[in-house]
Specification:
The protein is mostly helical and 309 residues long. The protein has 8 helices and 5 strands. It has helices at residues 24-39, 70-84, 91-105, 138-157, 164-192, 213-228, 249-266, 292-296, and strands at 64-66, 116-118, 268-270, 276-282, 300-305. The strands form 2 sheets. A 3-stranded antiparallel β-sheet has the order 3-4-5. Strand 3 and strand 4 form a beta hairpin.
């Protein structure tokens, strides 16, 4: 397995950084973020709330945990725990939060995970047992997947034998999800001709549904990184979802390459002034209206990419 190369930092993505945590300012930021974790509201099962006070027009109620929220927590918590040997914030606590999302949000038919869940099961859309929302939203799935692979990279770069079990469990979740995503994308290609992540992932044929650019790019990144760092080089039969036929890293890699080419073909626009437009990204979505019609009618944004001289 190729060993990851990691420099510790808190800038943007903790796993891709240029600054060490030895400086006074770096330590102050780390400590401030650490304190914020203790202030985070939690459900009775310990899962983090995503919102406390919601902006209008959304109804205010708590106990909502979003799968995309894990990217804001898990890589930082893994990094902090490895640096400071924190007994209450480390790879074990990261696993606990990741497992809460995975166990509550697992979409049984596909092996993917839905947007989030209501721990109180009081929301009108909540599954009566798990509290899960009914929709697999592409970008929340993508954020969660990136959190897994980035945590694995951090944990392997700063190994701690006391947390070896948690590392293996997180890797298993990543492998299962990567296989489920690969199967979903291959099914999309067979049925629609597109190697991409649909806005509502498990309903590519739904009216007005579309391949969403940011989710496609993010899952392409996560799968490619998982292959590069060796986290997808072996699968056990018990880790494979019953509806999946893919058990080889080459299957994952071929789909990932096809997704990358789909991105270039459909979302990158070269402008006459030398910049690039990146199109096809939807705005943020919420669990407060979790039905397919809501997700597929969100507005689009686009990004202008400027190359410096």
């Amino acid at each position: 397995m190729r060993k990851p190369r990691l420099t510790v930092s808190v800038l943007a993505d903790p796993s891709c950084s240029q600054v060490s945590a030895d400086g006074k300012n770096d330590r102050a930021v780390l400590k401030a973020l650490r304190k914020s974790v203790d202030l985070q509201l939690r459900s009775t099962n310990g899962g983090f709330w995503y919102f406390e006070d919601l902006p209008p027009p959304y109804e205010t109620y708590g106990n909502l945990s979003y799968s995309d929220g894990m990217y804001g927590f898990a890589p930082f918590a893994a990094l902090y725990g490895q640096i400071y040997s924190d007994s209450r914030l480390n790879l074990d606590t990261v696993l606990h939060q990741l497992e809460l999302i995975y166990d509550h949000c697992l979409h049984k038919d596909t092996g993917l995970i839905v947007h989030g869940y209501d721990a109180s099961r009081c929301a009108p859309w909540a599954h009566p047992v798990t509290g899960a929302s009914p929709i697999v939203w592409g970008r929340s799935l993508a954020w969660y997947t990136i959190s897994l692979v980035d945590v694995l990279e951090i944990a392997e770069a700063l190994p701690d034998p006391d947390h070896a079990r948690s590392f293996q469990r997180i890797r298993t979740i990543f492998q299962r999800l990567a296989l489920a995503e690969t199967a979903a994308i291959r099914t999309s290609a067979q049925n629609t001709g597109r190697y991409g992540v649909w806005q509502v992932v498990d309903m590519p044929d739904a009216p007005s549904n579309f391949v969403e650019a940011s989710a496609t790019a993010m899952i392409t990144y996560a799968l490619a990184k998982g292959v590069r760092l060796g986290y997808l080089h072996s699968f056990n039969d018990h880790d494979v979802h019953p509806h999946q036929k893919l058990r080889d890293v080459e299957d994952v890699l071929s789909v990932t390459r096809a997704m990358y080419n789909d991105l270039l073909a459909h979302f990158i626009v070269h402008k006459n002034n030398g910049t690039l437009d990146y199109r096809g990204t939807s705005i943020i979505s919420s669990l407060h209206v979790p039905n397919p019609d809501y997700y597929v009618h969100l507005a689009f944004i686009f990004v202008i990419i400027v190359f410096g001289g």
